[in-house]
Fold:
Amino acid sequence: MSSGRGSLADHPVIVIIGVVAAVVGLIVGVKELKGTDVAPPSAAAPTATTDTDTTLRTPAATQVAPTQEEDMPTQDEEPEASEPAREPVTQPVEEEPSRAAVVQSPGHTAPLVVRIKLGSSGKTGPDSYRVGSRPGANTEVYDDTGRLDRGCYVQWTLSRGSEVVRRVTSGRCRPPSITLFNFEDSLDEPGSYTLKADVTTDWRQTGTESVTFNVVPG
Structure:
């Protein structure tokens, strides 16, 4: 036994080689144990390839197809540019003329119908008035549109026999709140009187009417 121990001491190189071999074996064993913990190739993350398929390298957001085809403009269609809202153009509405306006235009072509209306103040009979009476007189003038008011003019002439007693022009044919023709003091003398109304209009119509009456002493 002593001789064996003495021999190892005599060869230290052999001892060192044995120690190194043991350490190397230990290291190799540890690496093998760690290698068993590595995930199998099927679970490993996919490695980048040189395949030309670009769908694997594009972001997920760009791979989602639009939900509606009409949302994607075609090659022939261009997205409509946003324009400011325009107010609808309204055409002027022509109001229908009232029935009265329709009657008034384009009429005024028929001959005039003229009537003289004497007042009743101082009247003593169907065709007689008391001396000094002031009955007054108005007209009623009609054409194919109806009774005329404005645009209608009356030339009044009062005569006693062949003598012209009074002449007055009225600017309208329909009396307003006053009498169109006033006798004033024209009937202060007895006699036979004639009141004549010559009517013209803005439409070049003409018409004439006259009334005769007597003035008698009262």
